[in-house]
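--- STAGE predict ---
source: upstream dedup step, 1 unique chain passed
mode: sequence only
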Amino acid sequence: MVDVSIIIPVYNAETYLRECLNSALAQTVRKKEILCIDDGSTDRSIHILRTYARNHQEIRIISQENAGSGMARNKGLELAQGEFVCFLDADDYYLDETALEQMIRACGDHEVKICGSFREMKYVESGRTERLPLHRDICKGHPDGVELDYYDYQEDYHYQSYIFCRKMLKEKKIVFPPYRRYQDPPFFLQAMLAARKVWVMPVEWYCYRLGHQNLGEHAVYIEHTLMGIRDNMRLAKEKRLFELQKKLVRRINEEFYWPVVRRFNENVFKLLSEIEQDLLDKKETIRYWKDICRYYSLLDSYNELGASYYIMRMMVETRYKGIGIGEYLRNTGIGTIAIYGLGTFGNALYYELKNSPVRIVCGIDKNNKLLDGLTVVTDVKDAGQCDAIVVTPLKEGAVIAAELKARTGIPVYTLIEILNNVEKIHVQTCE
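--- STAGE serialize ---
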């Protein structure tokens, strides 16, 4: 019987693939198989794999049309024959050649289904290697390793640093979800909960390479990321994993904040709603959630979101860049304004500026829509004295602004114009 199946999804990894394969082949486990799933590579990865396969019988090549690394790993799980399985990314590599052998032995000696190890990071640009803190503290004083209860750990990252009993995965039907991003944390969480007890060996094994990835893809696939977080949030709620939920919220607030804001749409809103609803500790919250809900509630329908996406995104984004609309207007010498149009964005602007340094003299709306605490007139001639008028309608906003400027002789801005100016200030500040 094969002791371990090393599953390697490969997609355009020619730069690092040889080092990856060499490190897997060097593992001292005698009965091992290395399953390389080529996920539709367009570079020379497949040629490298074929060359290695001709010289090493442990290597098996499986080719598929591009479907993402999660689906490639599932294909590897389907074909694996090892008692244990582990996962190696094609741009990473193994360190200690005896690590797998030690971890497999530990699983047998301590009757556990999962064994973990230490992890390092290599920075591509500098070549510097850094030891990451994973498990190091709990292993101090335990040269032969230590048992870990998942409820005391509650993490869903770093699945590559573990080996898994294949029979357990198969019986529990644990696979990777079909997401392009964040598909490994749902797999890892299910596996850890199924095993519950994990043995950790103090051995340097996995080296994660950082600095060459296309981080922009996180934004493109932010919906997939949120799907993965939602899945784990639900399972954390079911198992009452408070600490894991805190980590998941922290990731949305910090690691994935800008991708969420920049790709905000109806699906993102629904996913965030589902995540927020599953929080066990209501003190934990997505930090811009109240703003998003407030702006969203002002929309007449989901259909309006398509046309208004840009403005709503910017309304949320400016606040959390630390450059609010009120501060911007004040810094440009505008202390009082009238809001023209009290529809979706007139409402949004009113609530945005309500507690800001800028005073809203009145609202101007031909339908005489009322807002609590705001004087509303139907004609601009009744607006009274103010430093500027802000036009909020999305359609024909520039035309309306030009007409009002001609009639009143005072500065008139469109809301989208103000938001664009705020964005320019932020960009200049960052530079």
